[in-house]
Structures are given as structure tokens and as C-alpha cells.
Automatic annotation (TrEMBL):
SUPFAM superfamilies: RNI-like. This is Uncharacterized protein. It comes from Potamilus streckersoni.
Amino acid sequence: MTIILEDSSLNHHQKHLYNFYTNIDFRDIYKYVLTFLEDIDFRDNYKYVLTFLEDIDFRDNYKYVLTFLEDIDFRDNYKYVLTFLEDIDFRDNYKYVLTFLEDIDFRDNYKYVLTFLEDIDFRDNYKYVLTFLEDIDFRDIYKYVLTFLEDIDFRDNYKYVLTFLEDIDFRDNYKYVITFLEDIDFRDIYKYVLTFLEDIDFRDIYKYVLTFLEDIDFRDIYKYVLTFLEDIDFRDIYKYVLTFLEDIDFRDNYKYVLTFLEDIDFRDNYNYVLTFLEDIDFRDNYKYVLTFLEDIDFRDNYKYVLTFLEDIDFRDNYKYVLTFLEDIDFRDNYKYVLTFLEDIDFRDIYKYVLTFLEDIDFRDNYKYVLTFLEDIDFRDNYKYVITFLEDIDFRDIYKYVLTFLEDIDFRDIYKYVLTFLEDIDFRDIYKYVLTFLEDIDFRDIYKYVLTFLEDIDFRDNYKYVLTFLEDIDFRDNYNYVLTFLEDIDFRDNYKYVLTFLEDIDFWDNYKYVLTFLEDIDFRDNYKYVLTFLEDIEFRDNYKYVLTFLEDIDFRDNYKYVLTFLEDIDFRDNYKYVLTFLEDIDFRDNYKYVLTFLEDIDFRDIYKYVLTFLEDIDFRDNYKYVLTFLEDIDFRDIYKYVLTFLEDIDFRDIYKYVLTFLEDIDFRDIYKYVLTLLEDIDFRDIYKYVLTFLEDIDFRDNYKYVLTFLEDIDFRDIYKYVLTFLEDIDFRDNYKYVLTFLEDIDFRDIYKYAHKVLEHFDLKTH
């Protein structure tokens, strides 16, 4: 049946054209097109199409295409395109498209596409693309794209895409993409992307992406991406990404990313990322990342990251990160991270990290870190951290940490650490630290700490530790240390400290402690130690020291103390002890020593002193005591002893001495006193006793001896003197008394006896 269109708005030719399309059943007629294509050898005859294009000035005539589109109501007529696609077996006929592409030298003819784009004002005409998308049910049409991809061997035909990119000067022509984005309201158009993703089974389609990447040499193609980034002002274009994210409900659509990751074997395909990084000189191109961060207001947009984390069950998906790490040989590829750090001025970039921390409520979001730690078996995966440390020369990389610390005002940033600690229940998280320590052989890894210390000039950088202590109110925050100690069974875990000491040659590394002490003015900083002691109730927490002593066999580990003493020249370093004593008012702080003594049952603890004495050969090590006495002017130091005696009520404290004497069998211990006397030449050492007596005004201080005698019942204590006399063979040891008498001039010393006798009630004592 023929329908005659009489609409007066159409001219004569338009009416006939419309009636032709409306009344023919394209199912019958398309075959003539195919017959034409089959019968002519298109290799010879395509040139007529080219001749047509060359001879007409397309600048004038493209308008006929537009007129056609304007005059037909595409809402009714797009179906002819569909009918054509449905009725021809595209498996047989796509070849005509390929023949056309093979036979024409696209280097000359792509210009017609450009001419079309240049001459039409795309601002007005892009709507035809939209009309097409709105009117067709994409659920039906996408299959033709798939058929095309399935039937052509993309290994041979991708070259047409490359030829196009090589021949056009993308610097001039990328603008058409931008024009499209500027003129359409992306809020309406993104839905077509979603429809496509919903209707196709991505499990089948992703392979085409892989085929493309396998067959092209990415070394040639990435340059087009760079050209695009160089020529566009990303300040304008990034907004389209944001619009897309705002308008789609990412809660529903993130699944397409997951589907892709599940279906591709990432073991084979991660190399495309590496190829890209190898071929571009990241020194020039990292700036695009920075531009993006500068231009978007991250305060509003970080939420998309959070939405993604909330909606995916990270328990299932973290595995993709692990797969990546397992399959790439990080020994070769970590360099990309280094290149990035070398080329960017971290002084500018760190602010983005800060903005992120400021704007997210970390109280809600730290859980993602915990989820990751819970779900991965860290026993298997910590190795990636170690691989990184082994392969990079930390001598070069630590500087980035320093730059970060120099440029940020740590006074502002430390709060994020505190927020994290406040919100997580450290009882749950510390286990990850333990797992790490159990699984790695610390004998290999500690070297990275040493390298860091060697390469940084700690004289400049210790200040960051101090800044942290100044800005946080340690009174509130020390409890995190205590929580850690309470929750871990230190009996099992102290071994990590020992392993560290065994594996490092402390002879070389103690210097870092000295450098720290030299560079900080301890007069200002000792207060942090005091604050800690004041705020924790030491009555509850001293037990951690005891646990440590009980669990380690001090017979093996005391050597670390000796090594330290041997290697440092105590002549220079004892001053740190003095500085501490000078700056703190011992009247207030000695109480910590007393608290310790009151709360511990000295019956248990003294054994550690004995173990130490048994295991060290005091013949070699007493010299450290002498060095101390030689180098300090005892005229200054004795006052600390007096201050201690003045402020404590010796009536309470002497009991600790008695407890010690009761619990040890002096038959074994006196030998240490003898060893000392044998090895030192008392001719030199007695002077310290004299100096003490000269400098203190015994008129005021003898009372401490009296207090001791008054408070102890000599009926109990004399036995210790007897035990001493019984156990030593006085035939050998009386000489020490004689040596003392020979070397001192009794003319000077007897006066002290007089002072005691003047204040002493001889009848009573």
C-alpha cells in the first residue's frame, strides 16, 4: 500500500523521499545493495566515492546530510538501520567495510571526516546522536557491535584506528570531543553507558580490550593520550568526570569494575600498565595528576572513594591487589614510584593528603584499613613490604619522608594520628603488628632502620619527635602505650627486642643515641619523661618491667649493656645523667623510685642483680664505675644523694636494704666485693670517700646514719657482719684495711669520727 504524504511543509523531492522510506519493506530491498557490492570489485570502484568527495566542495554540500536529518523524523525512521542490521548476516558482509579500509589510503582520505566536523557547528548537530540513543532500545542494538568484534580478527584490523591517529594532527582535532562534552548535558547522556554495561555480559566482551592491547605496540599509541592531555586545559574538562559520578548511583554501578577484574586473568594483563609507565617519561607527565587535584575541590569529591569502599565487600576484592603484587616482579617496577617522587615537588602535593584527612571523618572510615588487615593473611603478604625495601636504595628514598615533615606543620597534622588511636580499639589492632614480627626474620629487615639512621643527619631531624611531644597533651595519650602492653603477652613477644640487638652490631649504632642527646637541649625536653611518670599510675604498670626481666634469661642479654659501655667513652657522655639531675627538681620526682620499690616485692627482683653479677666478669667491667668517678667532680654530684636522703623518710626506705640482705645468701655474694677490692688499687679510689666527707657538712648529714641505726634492730642486722667475717678468710683480706690506713693521712680523716662522737650519745649506742 502506498501512502502519499501531502504535508505542505515538505517540498516535492522531500515528499517522494519520505514516501520511499516509509512504504518499502527494507527486508526485500537491502539485497540489491548487497548484490551491488558483491558484483562490483570494490577494489576498483570505491574510487568513485572518493572522486565524488574530491569534486564536490563538501564545505557547501554537507548541508544536504543535515537537511535529510532535519526533515525526517528520526524517531520513526531509525528502524531502517535496525532492519538492515537484522536482515543481513553481518558475519558475511562486514568484509565490505574492511575492503574499503584496506583499499583506500586513509592517509589521504580521513580529511573528509575532519572537513565534516570543521564545517558543521557541532554545537547544534550533536543532538542527532542523542536522538538516536534516546529512541532506540540499546538493549537490542549493542549486539551488532559485539557481532562485529567477534567476526573480525582484530589482530589484523586494529591498524585502522592507529592509521587514523597517526595521520590526523590530534592537536587540532581533539577539540571535537571537548565540544561534544561542553554542549551536551552529561546528566542525561551517561545513562547510555550504563545501559550498555547492564545489557552486555562483560564476561564475554572484555576480551576485545585485551586483544587490542596485545596486538598494538603501546609504545606508539600512548603518545596520543599525552597529546590530548597537553593540549586540553584540564581545568575545564575534569568536570565531566565529576558530573558522571554525581549523577550515577555508584552503589549500583561499581560492580562493572569488579566484573572486569574477576573475568580477566590479571596475571597476564597487568603488563599493559607497566608498558605505559615505561614508555612515557613520567618526569613530564605527572603534572596532569596535580592539575586534577588542584582544580577539583577535593572537599566535596573524596566521598566517591568512600562510597566505593562502603558498597563493595572488600573481603572478596582485596585479592586483586595481592594478585598484582604476586605477578609483577616488584624488583623491576618500584622505580615508577621513585620517578614520581623525584620529579614532583612534594612541597606542593602533600596538601592533598591533608585535605583528605581534614574532610573525612576518620572516626567512621578507618574501618577499611582494619577490614583489609583482617581479611588478608598477613603471614603471606608482608613480603611485599620487604621486597620493596630490599630493592630500593633507601639512601635515596628517605629524603621524601624528610621533605614531607619539613613542609607540613606537624602541629596541625598529628591530630589525625590521635583520632585514629582514639577511635580504634587497640586491643584488636595490635595483633597485626605481632603477626608481622612473628613471620619476618628480623635478622634481615632491621638493616633498613640502620640505613635510614645513617643517611639522615639526625642532628636536624630529631626535632619532629619533639614537635609531636610538644603538641599532643601526653597526659591524655600515653594510655595507648599501656593498652598495647596490657593486651600483648610480653612473655612471648619481648624476643623481638632481643633479635634486634643480636643482629645489629651495636658497636656501630649506639652513636645515634649519643647524637640525639648531644643535639637536644635536655633541659627543655626531659619533661616528657616526667609527664609520662606523673600521669601513669606506676603502681599498676611497673609489672611490665618485671615481666621482661622474668622472661628473658639475663645471662645471655646483659652483654648489650656492656657493649654500650665499652664503646662509648663515658668520659664524654656521663654529662647527660648530670644534666637530667640538674634540670629536674629531684625533690618532686624521687617518688617514682620509691613507688617502684614499694610496689614490687624485692624478694623476687633482687635475683636479677645477682644474675648480672654472676654472668659478667667484674674484673673487666668495674672500670666503668671508676671512669664515672674520675670524670665527674664529686663536689657537684653528691648533692643529689643528699637531696634524696633529705626528702625521703629513711625510716620507711631502709627496709629494702634489709630485705635484700635477708633474701640473698651472703655466702655467695660477698665475693663480688672482694673482686672489686682485688682489682682496684685502693690507693687511687679512697679519695672519693674523702671528697664526699669534705664536701658535705657532716654536722647536718650524719643524721642519716643515726636514723638508720635507730630504725633497725641491730639484734637482727649484726648477723650480716658475722656472716661476712665467717665466710671470708680474714688471713687474706685484712690487707684491705691496712691499705686504707696506709694511704690515708689519718690527720685528715679522724676529724669525721669527732663530729660523729660530738652528736652521738655513746651510752645509748
